[in-house]
TrEMBL record:
Any one GO molecular function term: GTPase activator activity
Lineage: Eukaryota, Metazoa, Chordata, Craniata, Vertebrata
Designated name of the protein: ELMO domain-containing protein 1
Span of domain ELMO: 63-219
Signal peptide (residue range): none
PROSITE patterns per the UniProt record, alphabetical: ELMO
Natural source organism: Fukomys damarensis
Pfam families: ELMO_CED12 (PF04727)
Superkingdom as given in the UniProt entry: Eukaryota
Length: 239
């Protein structure tokens, strides 16, 4: 029994050593050979072989990160999507540096998002509001708006929205892109709520979590963009 355990441990160690050797030496040798054969560095090969959008951008990120390039160290602290957008939080009432712990700010952002939704697509917003007042699928329009704002923010911070933003705004995502994304999520959640046909508002957390998982699964596709279905997001796609 002890011999089997030791054999298993040594086997695992051998595999780890081999992987380390591959990552440290063979992979670099392969990249060197590829550069000599193609006359292009890895970044050039990625750009030539991968179409613009999230696939290309994330491959470039991985290449720079794995190579520990000085360029990656220069870009990393300055270009994350959440950093670009978070600079604009103060314009809409957030206090402090962390919106997720600022309940007043999150509520205020939710109301601004709902206002944006109503102004950019009054017809869709009025329909959603009207449906939310119906006895069969009743929910608080404002509270759901704040919850969907929180969902959108957490998708942003977790990096799940990278795919979406890299596909729709390769130049630099802004707060407007975030608000347009909120419009899409609000509209889709409303449809999802009706499809789920909950017994009452007490099922909100269950439906919200199921909706969150569906969106995350969609965003795992590198070609995914949360395509608009209504006027509030007509300018969302910017390929």
């Amino acid at each position: 029994s002890i011999g089997r355990v030791l054999s298993f441990v040594f086997h695992r160690m051998f595999i780890q050593v081999c992987l380390y050797f591959y990552c440290k030496f063979l992979w670099r040798c392969l990249k060197f050979v590829m550069r000599k054969l193609t006359g292009r560095c890895e970044l050039q090969r990625i750009c030539y072989s991968t179409k613009p959008g999230a696939s290309r951008t994330m491959k470039i990120e991985t290449s720079l990160r794995d190579s520990k390039s000085k360029l990656w160290q220069f870009l990393k602290p300055n270009t994350p999507l959440e950093s670009r957008i978070s600079k604009q939080w103060c314009e809409i009432g957030f206090q402090g540096d962390d919106p997720k712990t600022d309940f007043r700010g999150m509520g205020l952002l939710g109301l601004y998002n709902l206002q944006y939704f109503a102004e950019r697509d009054a017809t869709a917003a009025q329909q959603v509001l009207s449906d939310s007042l119906h006895p069969k699928c009743r929910y608080s329009f404002a509270i759901v708006g704040i919850n969907i704002t929180d969902l959108a923010y957490n998708l942003l911070i977790s990096g799940a929205l990278k795919t979406h933003f890299y596909n729709i705004a390769p130049e630099a995502p802004t707060l407007s892109h975030f608000q347009q994304t909120f419009c899409y999520l609000m509209h889709e959640f409303h449809k999802f709520w009706i499809e789920e046909d909950p017994m009452d508002i007490m099922e909100f957390n269950r439906v919200r979590e199921k909706f969150r998982k569906r969106i995350i699964k969609q965003l795992q596709n590198p070609d995914m963009a949360l395509c608009p279905h209504f006027a509030a997001s007509e300018g969302l796609i910017n390929m």
